[in-house]
Amino acid sequence: MEHLRLTTELRSSSFDEEDLSINKERKREISLSSNLQTEKLTHLRLLDGSDTMLNQINKLLNKSRKIIVLTGAGISCNAGIPDFRSSKGLYESVKKEFPEVSIGSGKEMFDISLFRDEVKISVFATFMEKLYANVKLAQPTKTHKFIAHLKDRNKLLRCYTQNIDGLEENLGLEVSMKNETSKDKLNSKFNSTWKNFDVVQLHGDLNTLACTRCFHTFPWNRFWARSLRRGELPTCPECERKDLKRLQLGKRQIDNNIGFLRPNIVLYGENHPSGDLISQGLSLDILRGRPDFFIIMGTSLKVDGVKKVVRQMSKQVHERGGIVILINKTSVGDSSWNGVIDYQIWSDCDTWVTYLEDMIPDFFKTQKQIEKLRQLKRENSELKKKKLSSTIHTPPTTPTKIHELTSSNEIKIEEHKNELMSPEQSSDDEKKSPKKRSRKVIPKEGKIVKVKRNLKQKLNSSPKLLKAEAI
Ligand SMILES: [Zn+2]
After folding, report:
1. Is 43 a catalytic residue?
2. Is residue 6 assigned to a domain?
3. What domain range is 415 assigned to?
4. Region annotation Disordered: residue ranges (predicted)?
């Protein structure tokens, strides 16, 4: 029992010490990060002489606890998903398929205004089916895995993404806004529901279809995929069901009561159907999430709503002593981001993650590995304390003298001889302290052999002495 109590005390004491050291560490961290905040957006490259600055940023990242991530098309490029704004890829292939349709840019294919034109709707449907087929084949990139790793290490506060590919879900991350409607806002469990989301899709999800009228969502199926590929938007089964019910009840039929299914993504010029929920969740992250590091990856920050998110989040991160970094290969226009983004690291996102793996390998240990290391450290520390305590309580008797005998000091040999020749005392000691008994055996073989030889010479090989030595 005493042993157990001691262990518990040791543990609680070591936790207190840990708390104290965490506080000290936190103060150092805040002081370090405050030095790293910049008034002007600073540019860094992975392979030039900016290493000192990058090292400091890496150190801070390694210590941060609540990381906010914002991603854009740049993180999915290496998965083979094209940036729809670029003039290549899918947009070009659709343009070839519909040469008669005037579409100036890839961005136009994501603009709500296309719904005014039947031909453009057709192009949109074909384009979306191609994009969906592309996404279905894509695998998460190193950057997606990095985000999943942040979650594994309990360091991910939230990942906001402008991407509609949902690749994060392939890694087991919980993606929000898949089926929620504004009614969910009334849900009293909003806060706890929001906390379970890892990824918030700011521009919707390509992997589901949504009705243009009732906003009901459905997973894709082969029949609907074929329909979209032909350039036709399927009718909504939910609207059809309701319409049939009205008919059966003899109610008045309403014109255009049946909506069409389209990918559940947010187009330019339209509001996000879950916009209110996202705002509510964003406020929760800003006010209660305590974000201490903000990583923006693979985006040029062109969308107004996203710019607002960055400014709000950056303010909060800076107030908490953290910094904001952008990993991107193209410029975002410095002047508007001074005081908001501290550093732009000019790099491909996957390359940056590989660089981090080399620079801060500890950061990439899994939570399991970290916990195992902590446990080993705790056990080691307890063992050391126990050893120390047992050394303090052991009277300086025979072992020390045996050690001293190795110096061939004749007087000490005599003292030792007297002790060993007293069987009563020896036996009492053994009863009182079994540890002492074991310590007699512990001395190194070389030394004890020397002791034996000296004693043999002095005591003419007393059988009693040899017995005592053999213990
Ligand atoms: Zn519907």
Report:
1. no
2. no
3. 398-470
4. 382-402, 415-471
